[in-house]
Amino acid sequence: MINKKRCPYGTHRVIEPKGFLPQAAKKIDNNMEIYSNEILINVKTLNIDSASFTQIKNSCKGDIECIKKTVLSIVEERGKLQNPVTGSGGMLIGTVEEIGPDIKTDLEVGDKIATLVSLSLTPLRIDEILDVKVDAEQIDIKGKAILFETGIYAKLPDDIPEKLALAVLDVAGAPAQVNKLVKPGMTVAIIGGGGKSGILCAYQAIKNVGKDGKVIVIEYSKENAQKIKDLNLAHHVIVGDATKPMEIYKQFSEISNLADVTINNVNVEGTEMSSILITKDDGIIYFFSMATSFTRAALGAEGIGKDVTMIIGNGYTKGHAELSLNIIRESNEIKKLFESKYC
Amino acid sequence: MINKKRCPYGTHRVIEPKGFLPQAAKKIDNNMEIYSNEILINVKTLNIDSASFTQIKNSCKGDIECIKKTVLSIVEERGKLQNPVTGSGGMLIGTVEEIGPDIKTDLEVGDKIATLVSLSLTPLRIDEILDVKVDAEQIDIKGKAILFETGIYAKLPDDIPEKLALAVLDVAGAPAQVNKLVKPGMTVAIIGGGGKSGILCAYQAIKNVGKDGKVIVIEYSKENAQKIKDLNLAHHVIVGDATKPMEIYKQFSEISNLADVTINNVNVEGTEMSSILITKDDGIIYFFSMATSFTRAALGAEGIGKDVTMIIGNGYTKGHAELSLNIIRESNEIKKLFESKYC
Ligand SMILES: NC(=O)c1ccc[n+]([C@@H]2O[C@H](COP(=O)([O-])OP(=O)(O)OC[C@H]3O[C@@H](n4cnc5c(N)ncnc54)[C@H](OP(=O)(O)O)[C@@H]3O)[C@@H](O)[C@H]2O)c1
Ligand SMILES: NC(=O)c1ccc[n+]([C@@H]2O[C@H](COP(=O)([O-])OP(=O)(O)OC[C@H]3O[C@@H](n4cnc5c(N)ncnc54)[C@H](OP(=O)(O)O)[C@@H]3O)[C@@H](O)[C@H]2O)c1
């Protein structure tokens, strides 16, 4: 350990450009000797952000060796696992290996934790890739990572399998925001509602709208759509391609008034306009998808004179880890579904 | 005129990709024969979006002929003036030349209007570029444009010079949002507060915070900072580079508690993190800047565990044209300042 307290935000590890914070930096220092206000983690599994994993997988045409090579070369080049195309990262689970004396924390060496800050700003060293789980979008590694003083984390609970917790915590911000935004009686649209974050959002939305409200899920594959129906996670499910705004708008308006709140949980580009069209004037759109384009959203709404409030999906909100893990505790069906996919 | 009513959103003019709305399309049809629910405009001046103009000007190293050529080739290629790098457009003023019979409107042929939808989705034909006004970021042309049925516009007022109205209407969404977000007693930060939209936002913020509140402007050039001080548009002005988050944070926290609301009005990239750092937990950030990156904002806030609500600057909100023109009517000083720059 280097006996020096450094920047709580981790700017001391930015190699270039200087003055930036680690997330925005091109390259950060992934030397694993910690400063006195850092925490060293022995990493077990990386949970790659869905937008990032999809991009890497597609550019590799699904080839595992190519995915491994891509991941290694990103970390080699940048000192962190930040996809240069999508800008996004993911998160990790591991064991606390060393805690600098100048950091206030309830952690102890040996604790199992998930980091709740993005891999796009986390110093990471990969010694070996052990396994790539394409369906789960997870990678088992031998390696280390560092948590800065302001870095948030969650201790892994005893009652939920590790990898399931990891998968859920990755998208914990989404259902927590739904809980903030959705009120009784509302009409809520969830685009990409058949995916990981979408299912958690749908569950929370059904809970919040109560008996007078309505939740409508828009999902790409018939299979996932059926799953949502079977689990009673929506009052209606639309099977459609959210990159085709006019088609989605038509289907949506045939079965419902426009949405008070729309949650966008897809992992592909070009779905801003669908979100805007199905949301009513004065409604709210919460873009959780990392594939959202700022200008397409801003100009798209203006372009049709739609007065909607559009929110950038901050991955963090207070209590988000507990709220999302509690969904797993409450719903045995979601737990089983996620276990089959992520464990 | 083609005696057929087509899509109110203008999808019938999208050449590629099919199924997209005009704003997201690569290329739209700028044939100037209107459909029965379109309006034909005889264009006088284009007001280029600041992010777009800055990009074009820089790539041309300020050369006027190069700027002209770039603008012409964009419109040639896309059928609209949408900067392929920034994705943004701007707006225009002109005279109504023809009104399709199937459109409900209070307009008459000969009315002078400003379009309030972005040039990034407006079918445009440029016959000749008459003048490029670099400081005003405006281009006088001979040409035509088309407004779709859902396209919003404002009649140009009699009491405000045309080009001044154009300049103000371009950014009308910003002060109108400030009016929605800022309450008495708040601490408000305005990044890029010395620019066009920034000045209007500062004026509105000062009005809304009242005597117990505080408005702090962060501005790049000393000259603009002084202007803000002279006009009493802020309680404090920080001269600094918003792309350097740690420096801005330091300067800001030396003179104030963190902001309840931060408005970002810059025209350069990489200022998300400054906005996040100077905003308090549970605060709101309104990104009006078109140079905002969705992922940098989303992951940046998560990266330091900051629970802020980040809003995408929708250019439209109800009553925005009137509100912003009223600022010019109320403040003779801002009127004079803008006249010297934009008229
Ligand atoms: N803001 C944050 O902090 C944060 C944190 C983590 C993740 N994220 C982002 O959240 C998004 C969702 O993540 P996730 O893990 O929930 O992903 P996921 O499980 O892969 O789910 C994505 C869903 O979108 C659906 N979809 C894909 N293309 C579609 C289309 N054209 N039309 C309609 N639906 C479509 C998919 O349907 P099919 O499976 O049927 O194709 C799937 O159900 C990603 O963009 C990710 O980057 C954001
Ligand atoms: N969301 C929407 O619908 C919409 C509509 C219109 C415009 N916009 C966007 O709004 C933004 C502002 O437009 P505008 O017309 O007000 O632009 P503007 O008049 O050019 O103002 C930009 C301001 O930002 C300042 N600035 C530039 N770099 C800075 C830095 N590194 N640190 C601190 N301040 C810096 C500039 O200062 P100096 O002059 O001293 O360099 C200037 O005062 C643009 O990004 C534009 O694209 C959005």
TrEMBL record, chains A, B:
Any matching Pfam family: KDD_N
UniProt superkingdom: Bacteria
Name this protein carries in UniProt: L-erythro-3,5-diaminohexanoate dehydrogenase N-terminal domain-containing protein
Occurrences of domain L-erythro-3,5-diaminohexanoate dehydrogenase N-terminal (ranges): 12-157
InterPro entries xref list: GroES-like_sf, KDD_N, NAD(P)-bd_dom_sf
